[in-house]
Automatic annotation (TrEMBL):
Name of the molecule in the record: Probable membrane transporter protein
Superkingdom per UniProt: Bacteria
InterPro entries reported for this sequence: TM_pro_TauE-like, TSUP/Inactive_protease-like
Record region (Disordered): 123-143
Membrane topology: Multi-pass membrane protein
Entry similarity comment: Belongs to the 4-toluene sulfonate uptake permease (TSUP) (TC 2.A.102) family.
Swiss-Prot/TrEMBL keywords: Cell membrane, Membrane, Transmembrane, Transmembrane helix
Subcellular localization: Cell membrane; Membrane
Keyword Nucleotide-binding attributed: no
Basic and acidic residues bias (residue ranges): 123-137
Transmembrane segments: 39-62, 74-93, 99-118, 145-168, 208-225, 237-256
Naturally occurring in which organism (per UniProt): Streptomyces hesseae
Length: 260
């Protein structure tokens, strides 16, 4: 199968994940780039950041139009992750390839577990996009959001993952967001962290195969729109469970590859 066809198929899957779940796209993008398209782990994480940044920004626009983005909370997450994302992005170029693969497998496993655990959804009903926690909960929630955002920024920079698989369950379980609001807000965080990480990877980006990345990103962007529509029709719990099973399979394969 040609690289172009593989890139188109992988891009569609990444876009569907980001549009429907607000995360998980980069956890698919990196192994696809490594095992299907022949990228090294370091190049794959950089390419993933490019693809996920473009796709997340597109999906963010679609969710913002529907009122699903809580900008203040998302800005807090994103701001706390900017410096960790940039620092970890600079560090990634100096790590062994096998170490990156093993670390990515561990993160993919964590993503799957978090998606399986994040089953609490509030009853349907739209809330204003800027609704915030009650005053008594605002400060503790803000501290948790900032701490989680810093950790996600580091993961984004190091492994090329957007971190939405951690943002979404955190917003749902800690800040009591509805699933649609959590997904939309997560996309703001992913876009910001990915761009911050790319700022430290200029040298790596210059040597990438754009004949693969361009069609990959294009189909991912189109897939994000379909994913957003899919999320409106299929229960979030069912989507997360199906995606978690796929992630566990990918993580297991990558871990075996890193250790052999």
């Amino acid at each position: 199968m040609s690289a172009l066809i593989l890139a188109l198929a992988a891009g569609a899957a990444v876009g569907l994940a980001l549009g429907a779940l607000g995360g998980g796209g980069s956890v698919l993008a990196v192994p696809a780039l490594i095992y299907l398209l022949g990228f090294t782990p370091a190049a794959a994480t950089t390419a993933s950041l490019l693809i996920v940044a473009a796709t997340s920004a597109t999906a963010l626009y679609a969710h913002a139009r529907s009122g699903n983005v809580r900008w203040r909370t998302g800005a807090l997450f994103a701001a706390s992750g900017l410096l960790p994302a940039a620092a970890a992005g600079a560090l990634a170029a100096h790590l062994p390839q096998r170490a990156l693969t093993a670390a990515f497998a561990a993160i993919a496993t964590l993503a799957a577990v978090m998606m399986l655990l994040a089953t609490r959804e509030k009853p349907a009903g739209k809330k204003p996009a800027e609704e915030e926690p009650e005053p008594s909960r605002r400060a503790p929630a803000g501290v948790k959001a900032a701490g989680t955002g810093a950790g996600l920024g580091a993961l984004t920079g190091l492994l090329g993952v957007g971190g939405g698989f951690l943002v979404v369950p955190t917003l749902v379980t800690v800040l009591a967001f509805e699933m649609q609001a959590a997904v939309g807000t997560s996309l703001l965080v992913i876009t910001t962290n990915s761009l911050a990480s790319l700022a430290t990877r200029g040298a790596t980006a210059s040597g990438l195969d754009w004949s693969v990345i361009a069609p990959f990103a294009a189909t991912a962007i189109l897939g994000a729109w379909d994913g957003k529509r899919l999320a409106a029709k299929v229960p979030g719990t069912a989507l997360r469970r199906a995606f978690a099973v796929a992630l566990l399979a990918v993580a297991g394969f990558m871990l075996v590859d890193a250790l052999t």
